[in-house]
Amino acid sequence: MRNALKSVIFIVFVLLASSGAMLSAAPMLDVPGAGASSAVAKVSDSDLEALQGQLNSLKQQVSQVSNYNQLEPPQDLVQSLIKEADRLSALLLPEQAQLQSQLGVLSPAPLAEATLEESDIASQRAALTEQKNKVDSKLKTLAAIKASAAELLTQIAAIRRSLLETEVTQRTRSILNPWFWVPLFDPPADDRQRLVEFMQQAGDTLHSVWQPGKRLLTSVLVIFAVVLWGLGRRLAERGLTWLCIHRMPEGRLRRSALALASVVATVLTAGIALRVLFFALTRELPLTPQLAGFSEEFEKIVYTCVMITGLSRALLSTQHPSWRLPAIADEVALAIKPYPRRLAAVLLVAVSVAQLTNATGMSSEVVITVRGLVALIISTLIGSILLRVNRTRRAMVVAGDAPEAGRTLAGVVYAFASIATVASLFSLLIGYVSLSRFITYELVWLFIIFAGFYLLIQLLKDSCEYLFSPRQPTGKTLKQLLGIGDTRLEQISVILSGVGRAALLLIAFISLLVGGVGSTLGQLANNTLAMLGGDGLRKLNIVPANLLHGLLALLIGIYLVRTLSRWLDNELLPKTEMDPGMCASLSTLFSNIGYALVILLMLSSLGVKWTNLAWIVSALSVGIGFGLQEIVKNFVSGLILLTERPVKVGDLISISGVEGDIRRINVRATEIQLADRSIVIVPNSQLISQNLRNVTLGGSAQGVATLELTFPLDIDPEQVRNLLYDTFCEHESILEKPAPFVRFSQLKPEGITLTITGYVASPRAVGSIKSELLFEILKRLGAAGIELAKPPPAA
User: Fold this and answer.
1) In this protein, which residues make up the domain named Mechanosensitive ion channel transmembrane helices 2/3 (predicted)?
2) Quick check: is 2 in a domain?
3) How many independent structural domains does the chain possess?
4) pLDDT (tens digit, 9 = 90+) per residue, 32-52?
5) DSSP 147-191
6) What DSSP letter does each residue of 26-46 carry, written as one string?
7) Sorting pLDDT into bands at 50, 70 and 90, what band is 12?
8) d(Cα 268, Cα 233) in Å, to the nearest integer?
9) Is this structure's pTM higher than 0.90?
10) Angle between helices 72-105 and 521-533 (to 10 degrees)
11) Is residue 300 domain-shared with residue 436, that is, in the same domain?
12) Peptide bond preceding 183 in cis form (omega within 30 of 0)
């Protein structure tokens, strides 16, 4: 077991479920003090030999494993070895740079002056060169060790994947077969002997602390641990609650802080109590390898159970419903309340028994039977929780009460858990015991990840809203310090909140892939950091079926792209000063790029290597040449429209006899809305290749209202001209500049044609204004006794 400091770091990581490596149990070298004369003296050859020997031992240990769970300790130790190599390299790099600089000062003198060089300078140069060669040699050795360790990590990941696939696909007897349970009630003699030896080792350890003269201290420590877990947790939770109520601002941030305080109090007191209890029982006699391995696994199970109870208490909040973060009805919360403790107790006992069989190396028959028992108990308990929730919600509907808000998400979670539980029980019935155990463990792990990251996301969102609110002291201070307005402050809040939530969702997804109930949290942190760094994302394959992996990547990628698009449309872009057309163009461009990246990620998840895509490129070339040419041309034209923006959403355009407003620019075509509200779909390539009239591109386009009227030859042209001119000038929508004018267009035997032209503020208003002008002109012509020319009779 690790010391108290490492335990605190362990607990903090469980609470945050985010990246951050735990301290390893592997031995570390002392960091040189400030007064160290040379890093070379601190990194001796024996240290390098010890690292190499540890790496060779780990390789031998990995080559002999036969169980999936046996690879977890070596993987943690290899990661610790890499950290140690990095630490030693960091000690040597400054020394190497310093020696290189000193050698640069003492560079060889020119040949003509070589005889004048003093002998002490030459000797000093030789000493520095020798010392630098030693540093270079040690750095090369450390680099080789690190590379070999990284390769071993890759091999461990491959072996774990292979063993996991083997275990999950292994079929045994059904739990309905009586012979399945025989090894549990009548284990083989070898397994009994192993269990007796393990119990003897545990008894010797307990006997060493219960000898006369040591019983009092042992009793005091055990009682202190129990009191700390029971009474201490309540006191810590009340203390943190008091701090949140009296020191945190009233509102959503206080509610999130109260939930976090409940989890912190539960995990910290449990961790300290476990440290005290372990010290009380193991302070006299060092643990045997079997006991040490079992104690480490038992510690992880304890923290898992503590997280289940702590997160459930914080999110359900049955004693203070107003503090509850998720939208869960009181009746449903009260119905779920007793089950987290029952699930934690079942996990603590059942999984500990399963780990006991692994630690003692019992036969596969006993291991499979215990796994079946664990999976059956946990699946049954989870199924009872789902049935209780379903009955409660039905009773609420019958009573006329609406179920909890956010029913879509609650329904998805309920359906997923129900399907997984049914699949687990069905796997037990047909003999896939390891698969059933895997499903139940993943369900528990999914709850911890979902609940933990939900709490962190709510806390992050509430913190950003409070810190950057113009009504809060922090927001006012930022406004004065940065000299920005309320809108910019809200934009900063939305961006930081969105980026933070996206990062937490990514870490949560990675945690689901690289972790589980049977995984170490140090391994979870290191694998998360490696995947976020990019190298692990390329090399790590956790899910046995690449097809399922690719499907998950596709579904989650599409969900994230749509979520971020809605966030852009509803939260970020409305708070900017960009026009609606630019906002729509940016949203469409983001969606197109996002979907392209999702497709690339899906192909990568399927294991497709880009170096092997020559045949796909060839096929696409042929397809583009014959059938996809127009589609590709329209797609590229759509990208040009979104970037160069010769037309944008909201513009009034005219092309090929079609005139209307642009409503949407899609990947392949553009939607144009006509005056009658109908939609015309125009391929993007036509907007690029054909002559197009953009009426509103300049931003100050004016409409032209032109009327042509034909009058008889016997009218007074001056009277009619003045009448038409006055009608246009008196209309409120006709602009004064440019002024309207009347033009003598044609003189025919049928009559005189006059054209009157006026300008209006917007091209979109031309139709309605022309209609109003015609009504007014006909009214005035009738009052003046002037008639329009009649068309000649048909021949």
Assistant:
1) 588-629
2) no
3) 4
4) 333 334 545 567 778 888 888
5) HHHHHHHHHHHHHHHHHHHHHHH-----TTSGGGGHHHHS--HHH
6) S--PPPP-TT-S-HHHHS-HH
7) very low
8) 8
9) no
10) 50
11) yes
12) no
